[in-house]
Amino acid sequence: MSKIYSITNLNPILVIVESPAKCKKIESYLGSGYECVASFGHLRQLKSLSCIDIENNFKPKFEIVDDDKKKKHIDFLRKKISSSYEVILATDDDREGEAIAWHICDLFKLPVETTKRIIFHEITEKAIQSAITHPKTIDMKKVNSQIARQVMDLLVGYKISPMLWKLITKKAGSGGLSAGRCQTPALKLVYENQLEIDNSPPKTVYNTTGHFTSHFIPFELNKQFDNENEITGFLEESVNNEHMFTRTNPEKVFKQQPEPLTTSRIQQLASNEMHISPKETMKICQTLYEEGYITYMRTDSKKYSSEFLEDVKRYLLQTYNDEKYIHEKVDHLSNTKTNTNTNTNKSEKPIKKTIKKVSSTPPPQEAHEAIRPTKISIQNLPDGMNPREKKLYKIIWETSLESCMAPAEYFSFKSNISTHLDNVKYSYTSELLDFLGWKIIKNKEQLDKFYHFLLQTKQNQSFEYKKITAKITIKNSKQHYTEAKLVQLLEDNGIGRPSTFSSLVDKIQERGYVKKEDVKGQQIVCKDFELEDDILTEINNAREFGNEKNKLIIQPLGVIVMEFLNKHFENIFNYEYTKKMEDELDKISKGEKNWYELCKVCLEEIDNECIKLKDENKCEIKIDDEHFYIIGKHGPVIKRTVKSLDKNKDKDTDKDKNKIEFLTVKEGIDINKLERGDYKLEDILANPKSNQIELGLYKTFPLILKKGKYGLYVTWGDNSKSLSCFGNRPIENVTLEDVLEILQKSEIESETNTDNKTSSIIRIITNDISIRNGKYGEYVFYKTSKMKKPMFIKLCDFKGDYKTCTIASFLEWLKTEHNIQVKPK
């Protein structure tokens, strides 16, 4: 007999979620009879291989996460559970969420078979109440899939990583070297892309544009010329050539709407339009989800609920008053299906003192959806949300709406102008918008002002050129990956899951295998050409090609680790194997495969490869008989072995007497060139005698970086500052920007500590702003009651006399130059 909530029973029904940010909103939807608390993620873990009984079908022995805060929180949850009327588990709808729910049951002795488990994909009142009305129980097939994933990750990490420590080095990067079931294939993608870049050097070619007709319309030539002789010959022949005009007939073309948003797709859009990382994107999405504005953000689904599709249809009809804007096959985006889950508890009703009445009919589907707004009527977020949250929500709102709309329709034709070469012609494509379709959402389409003119131009009409330009460009220039591009490739290759994409990208950077940095382009002196009025002009200018911003660049450590793993564990880390393992995990979650059988296969394959490494020598790259490139405790170094000259010792003693020293390596060494022997020792060795470097000027004095007995320090004039915070960083790897950051921080702290003793107020601008004279000269002191620390602003760039100027002009300078907006007092 099911329990019924009593008005006189003061014990609440406890709902447990993963994130505390959801709790208050969920409680507001459920009413006073419910209390919502968070698990703060996983409560237990498998710490090492010793926690797995391999001989007993990989039986796991879970331990509480070794963290004092986590242990206190477990005590808090135990008290809450013991004082509750009933417990309902509401962790996320994925493998990890299902496992967290099971761990809660197992840890707090709750019956797995009967403890209610609810699922929702948006934090709205309707979704929460629908979920609470139709609870399920824990899906142990999903739990087993998560356990298998955890065990396999441990097998890879604890079996293969020690091989890296033994044969490369134990202490490099953050936390040491490691291999990972999905981490290593992610690194492999970056590594192979670098190989393609190295093996496909860019080539310079000429792109040619011809301007024709009285409208000076730019037509693009369909051929690229490889060198100066080819392009000058073509231009000289063009002087007397009869350029004939032809065109195709206009045809209807359709530009398709964007697809619904998956995790990888929103990360790419955010990267392209907002220039933010996948990690930051997911952080913003998490906030939007917890605030109830969007659906769950870790998904690979491209479907919507039928209810959302109906809302979109109504919105489009009300807004544009025309059914044509709705895609004719929009219902194909629906994820509605018959609910056949035998775990659904249909007899239970929502238990709430003040709950609103909801339908007792089970929802038609509970599958994941694409990322979308919870309410299509909310076009913009309220002012309480920050600019990034507003911008990302706008992208989600627009894309979700566009994905349900009809294609944009155009009439299009191509105009061609002949040259003296066969099959070489100039072309211009004209488009006339006929129906905006999904593009009406942004409505930024520009009209083709030449469409009607070219449509009415007679066929085979002769045109004289107005001007022809030929400019050098780069061909076959392959780019390094952005973080968002790598996420897309992880998804395309079946590596990981939406919930792990961002963490995989972070992990290969944390390990020191990859860095996100700018790529300096190559400056080329270009010889361009321009033909006008039958005069061929040569134009020389220097241009830079190949500049890249915020790209993932593999480091020497990453190359060495990846080549080692490729050589010895290629079958474990190839893309097909990784995808196959993910597919096998999916089969376990559907009950089609036994979880520990998959672990057994994985262990056998790893052990077979590890046995072959028994007699392998440590990874070293020989430069000459005395010098070897190795990975040391703090990164790449040159190991120099100087043989003993004591001839009175036997050979074994001589070996022990050999002197070994380590020399600093320059940054940016190409490991493939090093292995081929393309470098000489002096090419890769940082100058060992360089114990002093002049970085630039600071406070009119030369800023000198020095290496002393106790580490790095810097001097300027009669002043000096220790740089012990840089640790053992090589002196040549410290930049002016690095040092200035330390000095400016030190200066601010000094001003804060000595403000009352050494500074005097010269002029009061407002209650929060004054001009003061401090230890390092006069400056602006700015601190509001809400600021924990004051802001110090230099006056060197103020134009005028800051002691006598008007307050309004001074405040305008602060607003324009330093983005400080304050009203005059």
TrEMBL record:
Single Gene Ontology BP annotation? DNA topological change
- Low complexity: which segments have biased composition? 335-345
| InterPro entries in UniProt | Topo_IA, Topo_IA_2, Topo_IA_AS, Topo_IA_cen, Topo_IA_cen_sub1, Topo_IA_cen_sub2, Topo_IA_cen_sub3, Topo_IA_core_domain
Q: Which key words are in the record?
A: DNA-binding, Isomerase, Topoisomerase
- Reactions mediated catalytically: ATP-independent breakage of single-stranded DNA, followed by passage and rejoining
Asked if the keyword Zinc-finger belongs to this entry, the reply reads no
Q: Which PROSITE patterns does the entry mention?
A: TOPO_IA_1, TOPO_IA_2, TOPRIM
Residue span(s) of domain Topo IA-type catalytic = 139-612
Q: What is the lineage of its organism?
A: unclassified sequences, metagenomes, organismal metagenomes
Drop me one GO molecular function for this one: DNA topoisomerase type I (single strand cut, ATP-independent) activity
User: What protein name applies here?
Assistant: DNA topoisomerase
Record has Isomerase as a keyword: yes
Q: Where is this region: Disordered?
A: 335-368
What Enzyme Commission number does this protein have? Answer: 5.6.2.1
- Family statement: Belongs to the type IA topoisomerase family.
User: Which parts of the sequence belong to the Toprim domain?
Assistant: 12-123
